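Second opinion, please. Please look over this fold, written as tokens:

===
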Amino acid sequence: MSVQPYNADQTDALQEVANIAMGQAGDSLARILDNFVTLSVPRIRQIAVHELVDTVTTMVGDEEEISAVRQAFYNSLRGEAIVIFAQSGADELAELLGYDCELDAAIEQELL
């Protein structure tokens, strides 16, 4: 199945929707943690599935282990949203939430 690339206006609109959604999520997280949350502007990429690993590596590097949260959405707009955490970010989140033990796979899954 061939996917039509987004034009510049569609990409800008999608990026703005993602920016608003991430801003609201960041605000909720800041309230839960009682801590300021700094966010970058979301980056929108339309890629084929087989390009995912290379694209993520290009975006975040390959020096540190990462965790990702994937959210699929289906309707007139279909796709995947992926939020990526570096291991250091997961460790900081765990500390803010009161975890004082070394993170294992189960705790990391719970945090995400």
